[in-house]
Amino acid sequence: MNGYLLTELPQDIFNAGFKAKNDVRAALSSLTDLTVKERFRFDKIPTFLCLLWRLGRLPKGATLYIQCPIYSFFNEKFAPALCRVLQKRQLKTVLIIHDVESLRFPEKAARLLPVERQLFAVAEGIIVHNEAMKARLQASHGVPAEKMTVLGIFDYLYDGDVAGADELFSRTVFVAGNLDPEKSGYAYRLGQLGGEVHINLFGGHFNADAATESIAYQGAFPPDELPQHLRGNFGLVWDGPVLDRCAGQTGDYLRINNPHKTSLYLAAGFPVIIWKQAALAPFITENGLGLAVDSLEELPALFDTLTEENYRRMVAQAAAYGARLRGGDFMRRAAEAAEENIRH
User: Fold this and answer.
1) How many contiguous H segments (helices) and E segments (strands) does the chain have?
2) pLDDT in tens, 133-177
3) What is the per-residue DSSP string for 208-253?
4) Percent of the chain with pLDDT strictly greater than 90
């Protein structure tokens, strides 16, 4: 695979976006790397002008992959200039979607949607998370179905030792991520589940006052170290303030998004528990990688009926898929499919 890869990297190494975008760079290492640091609080104009200069010097007709969103371009004044350069150089542009900001932040859609539509229109290919995101972008952004390639699941590159799920089923569930009570309010209610369900929490912004006999805080680790520290039977993919559903803005986004923590859990050798209405739920259940529930309040009864044999089967599946995720298999396949698609 030949071409160029444009990536804007976050400055915070504890940011999951740093890991996700770096993993794409590693998986697509045959591409020529173009990178820039995000500038949230500083003047973005120098970064934008520098990138336009570099893009303007790419060979005409070259294939350019862009990891999106690029925050330095996320401006109604910058987007037209970017699109003009892409068209002038006749670049075969393939967008790799990490987030769709207008859908992630609906209150900002009036400003963000025109910018996204403009960039999506000039792209020849778009790698989207899943079939639900593909359908939504058709409806909300007018993206033709034939322009999109479905990724399936994000990779999680890692070459160290992985923790692996506990050998015996002990009703232990863990969460890894941002534990700010305003974002992950559900995590502070997990102690209400009863049924001898034990919770391990990993991540920053934890409110230490919330620790109980059934909720244990295990600390925060950089994404490149986390797979060796996780402990439990299942990793939990949930969002919002409550236990009985994924609610609120972040919960609703799960209907179209592939949460990167799902890839973390599988790469570390753990099956997952996910909201049944999440876009990634069919991938999990159809491949035997965990359980899908409407409400976390179902867990005690569900664990009562889970046999050791079924648990071990899910662990084995997670280990097999985890090896693929650690090697970058899904992104390479998607990029090759997208490149083949734009040739025809």
Assistant:
1) 12, 12
2) 999 999 999 999 999 999 999 999 999 999 999 999 999 999 999
3) GGG--SSEEE-----TTTGGGT--SSEEEE--SS-SSS--HHHHHH
4) 82
Q: Which residues contact 206 (CB under 8 A, 6 or more apart)?
A: 179, 217, 220
Amino acid in the structure at residue 238: W
Q: How far is CA 222 from CA 19, 83, 98, 219, in A?
A: 9, 35, 19, 10
Q: Whose CA is closest to 27, among 312, 210, 301, 267?
A: 267
Q: Cα(227)–Cα(270) distance, rounded to whole angstroms?
A: 10
> What residue ranges in the chain does DSSP mark as E strands?
4-9, 32-37, 63-68, 92-97, 125-128, 148-150, 172-176, 198-202, 215-217, 234-237, 272-275, 290-293
Please provide residue 149's backbone torsions phi and psi, each rounded to the nearest 5 degrees: -120, 130
Find how far residue 19's CA is from the centre of its chain.
10
First to last CA, the chain: 16
pTM: 0.95
- Amino acid, single-letter form, for residue 107: E
Give me the mean pLDDT over the 246-269 stretch: 96
pLDDT at 24 over 80: yes
Which residues are CB-neighbours of 182 under 8 A, at least 6 positions away? none
C-beta atoms surrounding 60 within 10 Å? 8
